[in-house]
Specification:
Shape: globular
Number of helices: 9
Radius of gyration: 17 Å
Structural class: alpha/beta
Largest sheet: 8 strands, parallel
Strand content: 5-15%
Bound molecules: 6-hydroxymethylpterin-diphosphate
Number of strands: 10
Order of helices and strands: EEEHEHEHEHEHEHEHHEH
Strand order of the largest sheet: 8-7-6-5-4-3-10-9
Helix content: 40-55%
Amino acid sequence: MTVWLTTRFAVDLSVPRVMGVVNVTPDSFSDGGRFAEPRGAMAHCERLLREGADILDIGGESTRPGARAPGIDEELARVLPVLRHALTLGVPVSVDTSEPAVMRAALDLGVDAINDVRALRRDGALQAVASFPKVGVCLMHMQGEPGSMQAAPRYADLLTEVIAFLAARRDAAVAAGVTRDRIVLDPGIGFGKRVEDNLMLLARQRELLALGQPLLVGWSRKSTLGEITGRTVDQRLAASVAAALMAVERGASIVRVHDVAATVDALKLWRAVQQKERTRS
Ligand code: HH2
C-alpha cells in the first residue's frame, strides 16, 4: 500500500485522492477572489469537505501568469486564519506557498503538508521543511517564474527535463532530511508550458511514475482546457473532470481540483469499474 506521510495523517494512496483548492487571494485565475476574505474561505473549506475532498490545499499567493506576489505579511494575514480553521476539520491540510516565513508559521500551527510550486527553491525553504521532520511535501515543476513563465516556454526534451528537475528537487529534499515517504511530485500543468507541453505531460504521464514517488496533478480550470474547448474559466467543469480522470487513469494519486463534487463522482465511477476489472482477472 502506498501512503503519503504527513504531520498528522498517513494518507492512503491505494485509491485516488481529491485535494480541494481554497484560494485566499483577490486575483486567482480560477475563482477570481471569491474566497479572498478569510470567513468566505473558511466556509469554502467546509463546503469542499461536504463534497468529498480528502485533502484541503490553502494558498494566499496567486500563481496566475503575471500575478503580483503579495508581501509576506499579506500572505500570512490571508492564510493563517483559514489554516487555523481548516486544521480543526479532521482532514489533511496543505499550505500552497513558496515563502519560507509562511511555511514556518504554517508548520508552527501543525499543517500537514507544504505544497510548493517552486519546489523548495527559495532560500531557507528546504531548511524550514526539514526542521519539521513529520511534514509532507509536494514538489512541483515550473520553468521560470509566474511573472514571466508563459512568455516563451521552450524545452529541448520536455519529459526528460521535467523528470530530471523533479528528481533533483526530490534528492535535494532528501539530502536536507525529508524522507522519501513524505514527498509527492507534480509536473506543474500550466507552469512555463505551452498547450502542447501540457497535453504531452498528460499523454505520457506514466513515465513520471519511474521517479518512484506518488504523483499529484492539477488540471482544474487551466487555460489549456480553455484552448481545447473554447471555454472560459467558469465553463471548464467538464474538461476539468475529464482531465482529472485521465490523470488518475495514467497513475496520478492525488488530483488538485476546484470542483470537488463532480470530481468525486467521476472517481467513484472509475473505482467501481476498476473493481470489476480486478474481479474478472
Ligand atoms: N496550480 C496552481 C496553484 N498551485 N500546486 C500544485 N501542486 N499543482 C498545481 O498544478 C497548482 C498548484 C494554480 O491554480 P489555482 O490555485 O487555481 O490558481 P492561482 O494560482 O491563480 O490561485
